Structures are given as structure tokens and as C-alpha cells.
Amino acid sequence: MKIEFLQTIGRFFYILYQRFVDEGCTYRAAALTYTTLLSLVPLMTVSFAIFSAFPVFSHISNQIQNFIFSHFVAASGEIVQQYIERFVLQTKNLSAIGSAFLVATAILMMFNMEQAFNAIWKVSSRRKGISTFLLYWAVLTLSPVLIGLSIIISSYLTRVAIISSTANTLGFITALPFLLNLLFFTLIYVLVPNCYVPLKNGFIGAFVATILFTVAKWGFTYYVIHFPTYILLYGALATIPLFLVWLYVMWMIILFGVIISHILTNGYHFRSVKKMDGFTHAFLWTGYFWEALRNGVDLSIQQLINMDSCNYEVDPVKQIQSMLQNKLICETKSGRFILSQELSSLTLVEFANFLPWRYPTNSEISQWQGKWMEALKLLLIEENKFSDGFKQKKMAELFS
């Protein structure tokens, strides 16, 4: 049992590393870093507009700024804050067109973030129209409001003598940045991808990302203080590259959490060490699509994965893409999939020629059980693949 558990853990970390590399998260983090740099002033401007709309926050706007830059920006946060405040003050002189451009730039970061999350979740379609704007605006407005509420709550706790001692004992005020990070990461992991993300898996990804974020902030600050390489190289301009590096590290951590949520949601990686070959995998999924079509429903990748109890040689997304390219299935408007081939006229040989997967060996096909598998086993093991009976076997007959 211990060996199997260790194998599962080892497989999880290997898959995590492999997915992080395969998804190009380092490049995505670089793109998001650039977008964030462009969006910082617009984001702060939008935040100030929100604070002015809520009288309860009007007297703590400076506290909120200080809170953000001291707890969420590693090293030299005060200098960056001073620069951004100067830029924000200049935005008051903007025209209506300039202000609209400012809001559009703020939304651009959310757009790029959604694209990156959707790519990791293998979602080909993104939100469109008013739903996109509402989601982006909700995230942009909710974040500063949450921070403002947390500051009001922590201020209240410190003023009330009886509660203050308890709160300090529990470390509530000290843990506030950690809890805010955890809440924020959970919200974006669950809400931003254009697909269903289980809250539990989003929370686990957010929890890991928050821990990594906290450790990275401490480590980055320690490095800057004790190894002032950037300061020696850039002098007074060192703040800029340091801030860029920190943004890059932050985005890599955020994307890492997204991958954790995705792997935990799919879960097929941990079912067994044995993997189903690509041909058998495609055959079974075609059967699921055939059955779904008869019931008048379409299927998502997650539903297909949940119908099996095994791991796969071919990644499910790659399998779907292969079936789409060969027009065995088609994508619906909702981003799900439905059978597009008439199986009563499609032979098994034609099906095999559509896909890039080889026929399974006798040992491979023998280890799988379940509906439709006995008919396929009988055909592949007993029949001569060059016989007329094999060549003329229709797919619909195998699923009947």
C-alpha cells in the first residue's frame, strides 16, 4: 500500500511538472506580466473610483493602498506605490475617450488571464458579450471591496479590547493577507475559466498557490536585501526590473495553481498505472457519443472521462482533437461535443483509418472489460483482419 501511495504521489508531481512545461506557463506568465504592467495604473484608477462610490471606504483608501503594496508586493513596494500614485493623479486630467481607454486596458488583463486559464483547462471557446464584461467587472470591483472590508474588520478588532486580545492570540490580523490571497485565488480559479470548476479543487489549487506566494514573497525580499545584485547593476532604476521579476514569479505561481485544480478535477491520471491504448480509448468514446446521440444529449470531456475508470495513453484533449479533425464528432455552441458520423455505414476499418492510433495487441485488448468490449475483443483477436467479415463490420453493430 505504501509503495502504491508513493507511486501515486510521484506520478502526481511528475504530471504536474510535465503539464506546467507542456502548457508553456513560463511564456504565459511573461505575457501576463507585460499586460499587468500596462494595467496597473488603470486598475488603481478603477479601484479609487470604487472607493469613492462607497462612503464607508472613503477614509481608508490610503490604508488600502498601503495594505496592498506592503503585503502583496515583494521588496521595494513603497517605491512602486509612489510611482503609481503619481500616474494615477494624472489620470484625473483625462478626457472621456482617455478614461474609456483606461478601463479597456484594465479589462485587457482580465481577458488575457481568462485566455491563459482556458488554455490550461482545454476550453476552446471563451465568454462573449455582456457575460464577459460582467465577470471582468465583478472581479475588478470585488477585489478592492474585500480588502477594504478586511481593513475595517481588523481595525474594529484592534479597537475592541476584549476581542483584540483574542484576535491577536489567534493571529487573525497577521493571517489576514494569507486569507485574502486564498479567497482571491479561489474566486479566480473557479470563476474565470469558461467551464465548470469544482469549488473544492479550486480551493486546493488556491491554497497551494497562496503558500507558494507567501514563501516566494519572503524569499524574494530576503534575496533583494542580502544579495543586492540588481541594485549594483541598475542603481536607482533597480526598482523596475525587481518589480517585473516579482510580477513574473507571481503569475507563474497563479498558473501553477490553475494546473493543480485542473489535474485534480480530471483525476484520471491516478486511476491506475496501466493505460488504455489510443484505439480502444477512441472506440469506447465513440460508443459513448453514439449512446448520447440516441438520448438526444451532447457530452463534455469531463463527462467522457468520468465514464471510464482507467488512465489513458493518449491525453483526452488530444483524443478529442483527433476525433474533431477527422469529423467523427463536432463541437456544439456550448463547447460540448456530439457524434457527427453515421455509424451504421461506417466500418471498423474506416474508423481505424480515420485515427492515427494502431490496433491494440491481444494482451492490450484483453485487459479491458465493459460494454462493447467483448464484441471488439472477439473481432480483433479471433477474426483475420484481412477477411471480408472483418472489413465489412459496421461500427453500429459493435455498439448494438
Describe the structure using short key phrases.
mainly alpha, 4 strands, 73% helix, two-stranded parallel sheet, two-stranded antiparallel sheet, 400 residues, 20 helices
Can you walk through the features of this model?
This protein is mainly alpha-helical. It has helices at residues 2-22, 25-53, 55-58, 61-72, 77-90, 96-120, 130-159, 161-170, 172-191, 199-226, 229-234, 239-266, 278-294, 301-307, 316-325, 348-354, 362-366, 373-382, 388-391, 395-399, and strands at residues 275-276, 311-312, 329-331, 337-339. The strands form 2 sheets. A two-stranded parallel ribbon has the order 1-2. A two-stranded antiparallel sheet has the order 3-4. A hairpin with a 5-residue loop joins β3 (329-331) and β4 (337-339). α6 (96-120) packs across α7 (130-159) and α7 (130-159) packs across α8 (161-170). It is elongated and about 80 Å long. The chain starts with a helix and ends with a helix.
Helix-strand layout with pairing:
Layout: H1 2-22, H2 25-53, H3 55-58, H4 61-72, H5 77-90, H6 96-120, H7 130-159, H8 161-170, H9 172-191, H10 199-226, H11 229-234, H12 239-266, E1 275-276, H13 278-294, H14 301-307, E2 311-312, H15 316-325, E3 329-331, E4 337-339, H16 348-354, H17 362-366, H18 373-382, H19 388-391, H20 395-399
Helix pairs in contact: 1-12, 2-5, 2-6, 2-7, 2-12, 4-5, 4-7, 6-7, 7-8, 7-9, 9-10, 10-12
The separation of the N and C termini measures 40 Å
Q: Round the mean pLDDT to the nearest integer and report it.
A: 75
Indicate the low-confidence ranges by residue numbers: none
The biggest beta sheet, please? 2 strands, parallel
Give the helix/strand class: mainly alpha
User: What is the approximate shape?
Assistant: elongated
Q: Strand percentage, roughly?
A: under 5%
Strand and helix order? HHHHHHHHHHHHEHHEHEEHHHHH
Radius of gyration using CA atoms only = 27 Å
Helix fraction, binned, reads over 70%
| Count of helical stretches | 20
Number of strands: 4
Lateral strand order in the biggest sheet: 1-2
